[in-house]
Amino acid sequence: MYAQMVETGLSKVRTLDDMSPQERAFQARIDEGVKIEPKDWMPEAYRKTLVRQISQHAHSEIVGQLPEGNWVTRAPTLERKAILLAKIQDEAGHGLYLYSAAETLGVSRDALLDDLHAGRAKYSSIFNYPAISWADMGAIGWLVDGSAIINQIPLCRCSFGPYSRAMVRVCKEESFHARQGYDIMLALCRGTPEQKQMAQDALNRWWWPALMMFGPSDTESVNSAQSMQWRIKLFSNDELRQRMVDQTVPQIEYLGLTVPDPDLKWNEQRGRYDFGQVNWDEFHEVVRGNGPCNRERIATRKKAYDDGQWFREGLVAHADKHQARRAA
Ligand code: BYC
Q: pTM for this one?
C-alpha cells in the first residue's frame, strides 16, 4: 500500500470497549447525528482525519483549476469562455471554503500550502491528466464534476459542521459545472463527425481516471472503516463508484457515444451495471507523483503562489493600517 501522509495514531477501528468514557460519549453524539463543531471536544485522530481529508479536498479544488485554465484563452465562443471562467473561479471559492473549514481544526493555511508545494500532500489523482482538446472541457465538467457531486452530496450530511456546511454550497455550484460540461458534449455530439469523434476521444481518456477519483477499492481503502464510523464518510468508495457508472451510462447512450469498457454490462439481478477493472497500477503511480502532469501541476501552483506574494503582503498591510486606525 502506498504511504499514508498523516499518522492518525489509529491502526484499527476502535470498538466501544477500546474507548474512554469521553470517546464513547463522542461516538454516541455522532451516532445520534449531532454535528461536531470546532470548539467541541473531539478525539485527536478524528481531528487529524478531518484535516487530512479536508486539506486534500481543498488542494484538489485549486489544483483542479489548472487543466481547465489551459483552455480559457482558446474557448470557441465568448459565451463558452465566460462560462468556463466562472466555473474555474468557483473552484477557487471551493478551495477557500475548504481551507477555512480546515483552519477551524487548528492548522494554518500556510502550513497546508507548504505541504502541497513540497509534494507532501495529496490531491485528487484526476488533475494530473492533461486537457488536450476543447472536448476535454466537456468531459471534465460532466465526468469529473459529476463524480465530485456523487462523492460530495453525502458529505453535506457528514459529522463535522464546517465541512458539511461548506459542502452544501459546493454541491450547488458543482451541479452547474456538470451541466455545462454535458452541454459542451451535447453540442459536439450534435456537430460534425469530427466534433463527435473529439467527444468520444475525450470520453475515452477521462472515463477511467474519473472512476479512480473515488479512491481504492473497499478492500484496499485503509481509512474507510474508521471514517465511516465517525460519519466523515457515509458511503464506501466502491458504492459511490458504482453510482457514478449507473448514473452516467444512460447519459453516454443519450450522446450516442460508446462507453470505453468492453466489460460493461447491465446486470438484471443487481439492477446495476457490471463494469471492468480499474487499472490500479496506474492509479498508484499517479498518486505517488508519477502521473502525466504531477510535476507540472505543482510547479504551476508554486509559481502562482510566489507570484501572488506581493498581493498578499499588500492585503496584510492594508488590514494592519485599518486596524491601527480603529485602535487610534
Ligand atoms: N487521488 O483509504 P482511502 C473535485 C488516497 S475535488 C489521490 O480510501 P479516504 C473537483 C487517500 O487520500 C476532488 N489520492 O482514503 C475540483 C488516502 O491517502 P492518505 C476531491 C487518493 O480518504 C475542481 C489513500 O489514497 N474530492 O472533485 O477514506 C474541479 C487511501 O484511500 C485518491 C475530495 O477530496 C485519489 N483519487 O477516501 C472539479 C472529496 N483516492 O491520506 C472537481 C473528499 C484516495 O491516507 N474526500 N486517495 O495518505 C473523500 O471523499 C475521500 O478522501 C476519498 C478517499 C474518497 C477521496
A: 0.94
